[in-house]
Each structure stands twice: as C-alpha cells, then as structure tokens.
Amino acid sequence: MEETTDAAAATAVQLIDGEGEFAGESAERFMAAAGVAGCGLSYAVVSIMGPQSSGKSTLLNQLFGTNFREMDAFRGRSQTTKGIWMARCVGVEPCTVVMDLEGTDGRERGEDDTAFEKQSSLFALAISDIVLINMWCHDIGREQAANKPLLKTVFQVMMRLFSPRKTTLLFVIRDKTRTPLEHLEPVLREDIQKIWNSVAKPEAHKDTPISEFFNVEVTALPSFEEKEEQFREQVQQLRQRFSNSIAPGGLAGDRRGVVPASGFLFSSQQIWKVIRENKDLDLPAHKVMVATVRCDEIANEKFGCLTSDTEWLDIESAVQSGPVPGFGKKLGYIVDVHMQEYDKEAVYFDEAVRKAKRQHLESRILNLVQPAFQKLLNHLRLKALEKFKTSLNLSLEGGQSFAASVRDNTESSLNEFEQGCADAVIKQANWDYSKILEKVRRDIEDHAFSVREKKLSELTTQAKEKLRKALAEPVESLFDAADETTWASIRNVYRRETESILPQFLKTLFGYEVEYVPAEQMVSNLRDYAQSIVENKAKDEASKVLIHMKERFTTVFSHDKDSIPRVWTGKEDVRAIAKDARTAALKLLSVMVAIRWDEEEDRIESILMSTLLEGSVVSKIASAAHADPLASTTWEEIPPKFTMITPAQCKSLWKQFKAETEFAITQAVSTQQAHRRGNSKLPPPWAMVAIAVLGFNEIMMLLRNPLYLFLLFVGYLLAKALAVQLDISREFQNGVVPGLISVSAKLLPTIQNLVNKVAAEQQAEHRPPAVEPPEPQLQPPPLLLSPRSPMSELRRLHMPLSPVRKIATPSSPSSPSSSSTMSSPRHFVDDQKPRPAAAQPENESSNADSIV
Ligand SMILES: Nc1nc2c(ncn2[C@@H]2O[C@H](COP(=O)(O)OP(=O)(O)OP(=O)(O)O)[C@@H](O)[C@H]2O)c(=O)[nH]1
C-alpha cells in the first residue's frame, strides 16, 4: 500500500507546461497524493537546472527514486523535458519535492530565446531550498563553458528577489575525470566568483559577497553511461546529504522565508504569475500575501466546521426553549476545538497575518454564538424575576416583614442570576452582563414596588374600613339622641377610635420601610378620612333635621316623663307640654346646624331660643323688622365649611316645623275638651239606682216570657254584631260619653251597611258573578314631607281644617275615630294625614289655635 503511495508520489507531474502555463489542477492532485500539504514547514524543495540533455532527469531519478522522463540514449540528444516537472522524493525525510526544469541552451527554443530560461531560473530560485546546477566536468575553467550563461542568468535574476532566501547552490560536476575534486572545486569557485563579479548589481548589493545570497556546494559524479556502477554508488552517497536537509548544518539549513507546505502550491502559482508578468518579485510581501490568503481559507473552513458542528447546533436549539446548564463550558469547549484546528493549520504562516486572521475568526465565531448567550441571559432574567416573585410571596405568607422579605429575596435572586451568567460566559469572550444584571435588579425593584403599593393600598383600605365601622354607627346613634353633649361625645369617640387605629397603622407602615414623612402623610390622610366620616354623617343627619325635629317633638309631646304614651284627660297643660316639645326640637336643631370640632362653646342655641321660641308672634314680627340675628347665611363662631344649616335656613325650617306640628297640638286640645264634656254629661248615681229599682217588674216579665226571651236573644246577637262592627271597646277608650256620641253617629250607617251586605249576599246567590273594574285606589298624601317641600303644600296637607269644613265633613266609618291618644312617633306620623276632624264647637278650635 505504502509502495503504491510512494509510486504515485514519485510520478512526475507537470507544474508549468512548455507554453509557460501553470498546471494548477494536476499540481493539486499531486500535492494531495504526495501528502505535501500537511507537512507544515518540514519539507524541502529541490530544483535542478543545467544544459539540455545533461542527464538532469537521470540524476534526479537515481538520486530520489523519481520517474522524470529521460532521454533515450540511443535516439540522440534532443529536448525531453519541456517546462517544469515535479515529483516527490521516495524515502527521503523530511518530505522533499523535486522539480526538473527545462534545459538551458535548448536548440528547440532558438539561440536568442532566453526568456523562459530566465523565468524558470528565477522561479526555481524563488521557491527552492536547494538548486542543483548540473554541469559537465570539461566545462570547468573554460571560457566558452555551457553553464556560464546559466550562472549569469541565475545571479542576475537573484537581484530581482528583494529578499535572498540563502539558497544552496549545489554544483554537480558530471562525467568527472581523473582530476580530483579538490583541484576542480577551486577552479569552479573561481569561475563562479568571476561570473558573480561580472553581473550588474543594484547599488545596495554592489559589494555584497555571493555568500550572502547562496551557499555554494560542489560535488562530482562519474559518467552514468561509462561508469554506471560507480555513478550509482556515488549517487547513493550524495542522497545521504538530502536526508534531514533542512536541519541546522544540513544542505538547506540556512534557508529563509519558507512558505508552509499547505500554501506551497498557491505560493508557487502566485510567484509564477508575477514572474510571467515580468514584475519584481517581492518575496516578503509575497509571503504575507500567501499567509493572508491561506489563513483566510483556513479560517473560513474552520468557521464552516463550527456552523455545522452538531454539538453547537444542539446547544443553539436547546437554548431557544430554556436555560442550558453548563452553557459556557460546553460552548467554550466547542469554540476551543475549532480555534485549535485553525492554529494547527495556520501555525507556519506569517505570525502577524496568522494572529490577525485568528482574531477575525474568533470574533466571527463569537458573533455567531452571542445571540445564544443573549437568549440564555433572557431566560435567566425571567427565571430570577419569577423566583423573586414566588419567594417574596412565600416569605410574606410566612409572616416575615415586607422590607426584610424584599431585601433577602432580592439578594438571593440576584446571586442566582449572577451565577447563571458566570456559568454562561465562555472563556474566549469577555461578555459583559452587568447591564442585564442592572435590568434584573430594576425588574425586581419594580415588582417589589408594585407589591408594596398594593399592600399599602390594602392596608389603607382596611384602616379606612375600621375607622368607618368604629365611627359611623356610634356617631349616628349620638345624633339620634342629639342634645347639648352630642358634639363633645362625637369628639371623644373620634379621638378614642383614631388614637386606637392610627398608631397601629403607622407601626405597620414602618414594616414596609415607608419613610417618616410619607408615613405621617398617610396617617394624616386617614385622620382626614375619619373626620370626613363624621362630617358626612353629620351632614346626612342635618339634611333630615326636620324629620328629627318632628320625631323629637312627638317624643316629648306624646309621652310623659316616664315615656308612657300620654292620654289627654283634660288635666294636662297642653301649652307647657307643647312648649317643652318645641324647645327639645329647637335644641336638636341647634346641635345639627354646625360641625363642632372646636371645644369652645357657641351661642347658637341661645340665639335660636331667643329668636324662634321666646316671645309672642306679634313681638317676633316687630323684632323681625329691626335686627334679626337669623337673617344671615353664616354663624358668627362657625367657619362656613362647618356650617350645615345657615341661620336663614333655621328660620325657614322652624316655620315649617311649627306648621307641621300644629295639628297635633290642636288635636290634643280637642281631645281634652271632648273628655271634659263627656265626663260632665253622665247621669248621677242616684238616678241610675232609681232606674234599676223602678224597672224591676219589667225586667222580670222579660225573663219569664219565652217569646220575649227569644226576642231578647235575637236582640243580643244583633247588638253583638253591631258592637263588633263598631269596635265598641275602642270607641269607649276615651270615655263613656264620647264613646256614646261616636257610636250613635255611626250606628245608622253601620245598620244600613249590614242590611246592604245581607241584601248583596242574597242577590249574589241568585245572580251569576260579573267582572267589575277595580276601583281606582286613592293614594294617601305623604306622611312626612322633606324640609324642601314648598310651604304651600305643607300648609295644605297639615294645617288644621277650618271650622266650617270640620263641621260639614262627616266622619267616615272606615277612617279611624278622632282618637286623642298619640302613643308613638309612628302614630303621630299617621295622624299627620289630612282627615276630617270630629265636629267640635267653634270656641274649642279657637282655643287650640291660640296655643299653636
Ligand atoms: N555522458 C553522459 N551521458 C549521460 C549521463 N547521464 C545520462 N546521460 C545520457 O544523457 C542523455 C540525456 O539524458 P537526460 O537524463 O534525459 O538528460 P536531460 O538533461 O534530462 O535532458 P533534457 O531534459 O532534455 O534537458 C541520455 O541519453 C543519457 O543516457 C552521464 O552521466 N554522462
């Protein structure tokens, strides 16, 4: 197998054809087959030049085991090698590439055509480490030697290389004679020196010795044709000199500016191109150019390898759906592998170029993988925020204070995020994650802030609810029983409740690390809220003050001091009771006119008393003409914002109140008078006894006769039915006489009603039922009117009826009797309904009017 490879490598291929064209494709195939590309710098290039048909190919084949085409000795001397051929030495280490150049002085190209000769010589000098110069022994010391023009050409073109490679020129003297080499070599060197001296050199190299540019070596071989055995023997000895030729002290130990093997072909092609274009050959620049091109190629290849690396593709797809544990380590390893590959292949190229291209490759790779890193950071960011949210909830549920929970959980979430970032960074990149760390911190702070705001809002709502519960009902009940101590009690309740609820609230705020000023502001807001509860309740109650006044009036007027409903028997002082009741109502009004946060006493009650209650109607009218303290919209001591009922409104309210309570007083007076009259009309007891004694016989007769007894029984049943119908017990509640009067008035209509009913029932038995339209129901007038009801309406509904109207209207059987008892405010309210009053003498109603 190895033999086959060696044979393939040794097979000569054309590098440049006879027309001067570079045979890139066949050369590439050769390079691949010979395995030169992987040799790095461990390879040597040997060329041979010399006159045509001087046995060059024969020598190379014998020396290196190659198979360059040789001329058939029996056909005569003609050119066999056209252009430049190339093969790899067999069994020589390091890898040695040999090039066989077209012979000089060829008849085929003509005498003057030295262009290709010069170009191929320059090419050989530019790319070879060792140049064998084949020459006939008999040419040494001759003026017309065949190799003189060749040497001249070599030295001339050497000047076109900006940087000499210190090529080894090994002169191989063919067909050596008996003259020993020791004698031939000085003559040859002298010839060489002469030629070197004769060559026109640039100013910089005018005095430069040949040794600066070349290592000159000389060897001699016997004739292949005549002494083949000796030739082979000495060739084998010469072959030893090519072993480790590039090592220090070797044949090519001093060589300079070697192009790495992988760039050899490209470099050769470029050099040939430059030579063909007859340009100056700047080898250092060429070397940089080759390095640039090759390093680029290598970098591109490695980048391509990475993009299709399955491990990288796996990581890239995994990171789309979530964090990848050990991301940095894994990715770093992958990048490392491909960078090392680059380093391995580019190591022999120009260092500056290699490093620059490495850097470029690395940045391309990092750009490729960076989006995956960013994606991972986003996952970590979300994870950190989620962790913070969850752990904060748990801490708060566990009873830890808000501020401490936020602090602890922020720290742990950020630590975890930072660890994740550190794990995601690859060693090749200096990726900065401080910005995203800041973002995570902001995310966490924003969340904590929103939770805090929510919690504080909940706390505030709770505190408000507590305040509302603690204040609303007690304040309402205090207003229900309004008296001169009401506002003091309200202030006490307010103080007690706020002092119990607000410090607790403030303490809770400190758990949220609310600063002192905002915390105080929040407490102050709550205090205002508590005040507003009281004030709103007060305003609410003030809007219903007329109802409250009437209720208060009724309570006092219709109940005695033991809260027992009053029975108007005639002994009561209605005037005094009415005055007391109105005084109580006025006191209630004075409580409701203003909000009193201030503990200082005011004069509102005394102003109201003196203005509204005291003095006769005539004196009031007179005083109204002068200075009326209630003719104002403000109270002297009360700021407008605390005024609930203005003095003018008080006046109007009082007027309405009086109008609406007049009827109750009138009724009380009427009841009293009726009571007095009823009591005075009873027959004396002696007359009653006389009736019983004188009527004894008639009573006995009735009892003894069954017919009478039956009639008596029927009469009893009738009387019982009437009694039920008339509700006798209720009628006699106010005395016998008023009862008799009332019953006698209702007796006839009731009997008529009974008879009608019996007749209707009998008719209904004989007639089919007919559907009758329902009678429209009359809406009762409003029981209570709001304080805003127009006075005319109030008067119409509540003013006592005129005496004429009272007498003309009969009492309705269905309406309640004109009972004088007002057992409760509800009864009083019922009594406010306009109804026909019981007939009474004119002088009695005028008595009631005088109280009103
Ligand atoms: N006198 C003599 N002839 C030789 C020697 N070696 C080879 N020859 C003969 O020289 C002739 C040319 O041999 P090649 O090896 O083809 O010579 P060449 O220099 O490669 O020829 P071109 O490639 O055409 O320039 C052949 O006939 C060989 O037999 C030698 O050492 N001495």
Automatic annotation (TrEMBL):
PROSITE patterns: G_GB1_RHD3 (PS51715)
Pfam families hit by this protein: RHD3_GTPase, Sey1_3HB
Biased composition (Polar residues): 842-852
Biological processes, Gene Ontology terms: endoplasmic reticulum membrane fusion
Any Gene Ontology CC annotation: endoplasmic reticulum membrane
Stretches with biased composition (Low complexity): 809-825
Protein family: Belongs to the TRAFAC class dynamin-like GTPase superfamily. GB1/RHD3 GTPase family. RHD3 subfamily.
Protein name in UniProt: Protein ROOT HAIR DEFECTIVE 3 homolog
Organism the protein comes from: Eragrostis curvula
